[in-house]
Amino acid sequence: MFISLYMDTGEESMLKKAILCVDDEKIILQSLKAQIKKYFGDRFVYEFAESGSEAWEVIEELQNDGIEILLIVSDWLMPNMKGDELLIQVHKKYPHIVKVMLTGQADHDAIERTRQQANLHRCLYKPWEEQELIDTLVSGLNV
Predict the structure, then answer these.
(1) Which secondary-structure segment (H or E) carries 65?
(2) Which of 5, 67, 83, 98 could bridge across to 46 with cysteines, CB 3.0–4.6 Å?
């Protein structure tokens, strides 16, 4: 099951831009949520998925709701579908989405493949520094 975090005022329909984070570890998703929400506040819809297949469910739901995904932060090592596969597939269908890989275990080939085939914006390594995450998101979002 994926976690949804909309604007606290209950006016989720007013938000039309989203950030999606994908990681099979709930503690990582909770950390990402806290750090991203702390910096960006209610400027975006925040979505969280625990696998590549859940990420696709979220992507389809957001598209159906008319909410544009601006950026995806994805772990690399996940069951069933690795992050590079997910980001490459997303790029084929939604090339405008900014892609960031977050990993503690990705090999150089996977990162390079994602750079070349998915226009990878940046790769962050676990454990990441909060400011590095925020700087990466700000540069990817051009805000």
Answers:
(1) none
(2) 5
HEC string of 66-103 equals CCEEEEEEEECCCCCCCHHHHHHHHHHHCCCCEEEEEE
The range of the structural domain enclosing residue 60 comes to: 3-141
Say which residue the tokens 């989720």 belong to. Answer: 12
Residue 41's CATH number: 3.40.50.2300
Tens of pLDDT, residue by residue over 13-62, are 455 899 999 999 999 999 999 999 999 999 999 999 999 999 999 999 99
What is the domain count for the chain? 1
Quick one: CA dihedral 134, 135, 140, 141, positive or negative?
Answer: positive
